[in-house]
Design brief:
By secondary structure, the protein is an alpha/beta fold. It has one domain: 4-Layer Sandwich (Metallo-beta-lactamase, Chain A). The strands form 2 sheets. A 7-stranded mixed β-sheet has the order 6-5-4-3-2-1-14. Strands 7-8-9-10-11-12-13 form a 7-stranded mixed β-sheet. The longest helix has 11 residues. The radius of gyration is 17 Å and the shape is globular.
């Protein structure tokens, strides 16, 4: 697999930042790096374009980045901030003249079929999105074009969800624990993207210290923190507190790997 281009479509929590009705320093900040849509990642290779998750801001994110081609959506789990934008894949159905490949585990597939039940009814209504949902399993690689993807089991409190490894990139969101078996699958990555909700402990997400601990275990060249809430604080204030090899991601950030 040759060089990957990755773009952070969104780096916020299920509420995004700013949070409706909040007047904290982060939510009223005019720094664009403090404006966070729901978490999603765009991954592009020479012959494939995929997103990891498609939350409620999916349409806005695709328009902002000018994404005119999309080959697949890879789903971490079924919470609505990660699948709520799937209706808008219909634009790509129209452009490609084929169903969108959706890679998801069985439980997430059932949730997608329930939330978007109108997609799977017969006869299908004209103009609805078309989905080809493909089952994925822990540790078993699958490919989109020349991008090989390895699902890696992590836990969102008691809910099993997936992180993913793509070559030297690891992407983990909505997790608060990673089994030893999964850590072994992540060894040797150059770039780690991991959720860090806030500085204080949280019941189902890594906080800042937890994310930094995983970074120290895996020793990537660089770690980017995502799925960040307003309680983390402003980008300009938090960034100087981080180790040199760790950064806060922000919406629109593009990297090459």
């Amino acid at each position: 697999m040759k060089k990957l281009k990755i773009t952070f479509l969104g780096t916020g929590t299920s509420q995004g930042v700013p949070v409706i009705g909040c007047r904290c320093d982060t939510c009223i900040s005019d720094d664009v790096r403090d404006r966070r849509l729901r978490s999603s990642l765009l991954v592009e290779s020479e012959n494939a374009v995929v997103t990891i998750d498609a939350g409620p801001d999916f349409r806005q994110q695709m328009l902002r980045e000018g994404v005119s081609r999309l080959d697949a959506v890879i789903v971490t789990h079924e919470h609505l901030d990660h699948i709520g934008g799937l209706d808008d894949i219909r634009a790509y159905n129209y452009l490609s003249r084929r169903p969108m490949k959706i890679f998801a585990e069985t439980r997430a597939r059932r949730a997608i079929e329930r939330v978007f039940s109108y997609v799977f009814c017969e006869p299908g209504y004209p103009g609805i999105p078309r989905m080809d949902i493909i089952n994925i399993e822990d540790g078993i690689p699958f490919s989109v074009g020349n991008v090989e993807v390895v699902p890696v089991r992590v836990f969102h409190r008691k809910l099993p969800v997936y992180g993913f490894r793509m070559g030297n990139l690891a992407y983990i969101t909505d997790a608060d624990s990673i089994p030893d078996k999964s850590l072994s699958l992540l060894k040797g990555v150059d770039l780690l993207v991991i959720n860090a909700l806030r500085k204080e402990k949280h019941i189902s997400h890594f906080n800042l210290d937890g994310a930094l601990e995983i970074s120290r275990l895996l020793l990537p060249r660089h770690t980017y923190l995502t799925h960040i809430g307003h309680h983390m604080g402003r980008y300009i204030n938090v960034s100087p507190e981080l180790p040199e090899d760790v950064s806060l991601a922000y919406d629109g950030l593009t990297l090459y790997l």
